[in-house]
Design brief:
It comes from Pseudocitrobacter corydidari. The chain is α/β, with parallel strands linked by helices. The chain has helices spanning 23-26, 44-60, 68-76, 79-89, 92-95, 97-109, 112-121, 135-138, 156-159, 175-190, 192-195, 238-250, 315-323, 337-345, 366-374, and strands at 5-6, 13-18, 64-67, 123-124, 145-147, 160-163, 166-169, 200-203, 220-224, 227-232, 256-261, 275-279, 282-285, 296-301, 307-311, 329-332, 352-355, 358-362, 378-382, 399-403. It folds into two domains: 5-67 and 151-403, L-arginine/glycine Amidinotransferase, Chain A (5-stranded Propeller); 71-147, Pentein (Orthogonal Bundle). A hairpin with a 2-residue loop joins strand 6 (160-163) and strand 7. It is globular, with a radius of gyration of 21 Å.
């Protein structure tokens, strides 16, 4: 089987990319967390332990777990990759040519694991040697950031997503996340596990301003059988979807893309926070948001390099048609209205399916997990009291690199 191939959301998961955050979380404070897209500050130690429990749950199921800091460390072992990353993440225009050159020179001498930690965890003025002098330095305090931390790297799902035989390296909507994409571009371009790989880069590998064409992996569900379901959310635009759909069709990787409109607010930041795929005919949904009357279109190739768009009467019908099943089974968030809203906020619907009918989810979502259990879905529970504060569950925190189709 092709090494980097993701044929569905529910087929046997074989390899996955996670990020165990540390430095970036240490730098989350009450005064900067909102700007960095977190609602709260996390206990770093606890979050790390919970993340280890998640990674170990996957390993115990025989799934290969790759960690972002390891991949970045191995990527900067390659001089060309290191130069590109330093020039991209510490640009002349950001810091001024003299200061940027000094910072790149100093970072370039660091042990590679330490450099990788700064590429995700950021860098403050207080951390650079005092011999680096500059007007920029004089006008900043020691705790100001030269490079801001990237705490959202925790959610590896968003920055890139594998769809059939290729990957979309996503142009992120929020400034706090845009530099994450460069770390992934470097990994997929130079890391030995990917550099010679026979896979397609659909979108997002160029150093340009993607303007309104933003896309995040949390909105992309590879539902299988040649179909992809994408949510139009706060972060993923119709423009971004059109670029991705075009590339999928041109490379003959998908026959249809179903686009579903979502409300543009934080509680349903991505499609996967309100809907995930559990088994061939079964999805978990938060019914307050994923409603039958939501606008939905199916995009198909028009045969001349363009796209045909047809409005669907409802998204369930569109999914049934795409998967060739007679009826979609929905498992809604558990508990009464109050409990359901709380559990959705704590990612009860954001579960990672390891194989049909077996999912990983936060143990705290007792009402929803009980409903999954009654419906014959096995939940492997992980602790999430701290991790959940980042507003992302097991699916958000994982980027499948290899997964069977259905």
């Amino acid at each position: 089987m092709e090494k980097h191939y993701v044929g569905s959301e529910i087929g046997q998961l074989r390899s996955v990319l996670l990020h165990r955050p540390n430095l970036s979380l240490k730098r989350l404070t009450p005064s900067n967390c909102q700007e960095l897209l977190f609602d709260d500050v996390l206990s770093v130690e606890r979050a790390g332990q919970e993340h280890d429990a998640f990674a170990n749950t996957l390993r115990q199921q025989g799934i290969e777990v790759l960690l972002l800091t390891d991949l970045l460390t191995q990527t900067v072992d390659i001089q060309e990759a290191k130069d590109w990353l330093l020039n991209t993440q510490v640009s002349d225009y950001r810091l001024g040519p003299v200061f940027a050159n000094d910072v790149r020179g100093w970072l370039g001498e660091l042990p590679h694991r330490e450099l990788a930690r700064h590429l995700s965890g950021g860098l403050t003025y207080g951390e650079i040697p005092v011999c680096i002098k500059n007007m920029v330095v004089d006008t900043h305090a020691a705790n100001d950031f030269i490079m801001k931390p990237l705490p959202n790297h925790l959610f590896t799902r968003d920055t890139s997503c594998w769809i059939y035989n290729g990957v979309s390296i996503n142009p992120m909507a929020k400034q706090a996340r845009q530099r994450e994409t460069n770390n992934l571009r470097a990994i997929y371009r130079w890391h030995p596990a990917f550099a010679k790989g026979d896979f397609i880069k659909y979108f997002g590998d160029e150093n340009i301003n993607y303007d309104h064409s933003t896309l995040e992996g949390g909105d992309v569900l590879v539902i299988g059988r040649g179909a992809v379901l994408i949510g139009m959310s706060e972060r993923t635009t119709p423009q971004g979807i059109e670029f991705l759909a075009n590339a999928l069709f041109k490379n003959k990787q998908a026959e249809r893309v179903i686009a579903l409109e979502l409300p543009k607010h934080r509680s349903c930041m991505h499609l996967d926070t309100v809907m995930t795929h559990l088994d061939v005919d079964t999805f978990s949904v938060y019914p307050e948001v994923v409603r039958k009357d939501a606008q939905c279109w199916t995009l198909t190739p028009d045969g001349h390099g363009g796209i045909t768009r047809s409005e669907e009467r409802d998204f369930l019908h569109a999914i049934e048609k795409a998967l060739g099943i007679s009826q979609v089974r929905l498992i809604t968030t558990g508990g009464d209205a109050f409990e359901a809203e709380r559990e959705q906020w704590n990612d009860a619907n954001n579960v990672l399916t390891l194989r049909p009918g077996v999912v990983v989810g936060y143990e705290r979502n007792i009402w929803t997990n009980e409903k999954y259990d009654k419906a014959g879905i096995t939940v492997l529970p992980i602790p999430g009291d701290e991790l959940g504060r980042g507003r992302g569950g097991a699916r958000c925190m994982s980027c499948p690199l290899e997964r069977d189709g259905i």
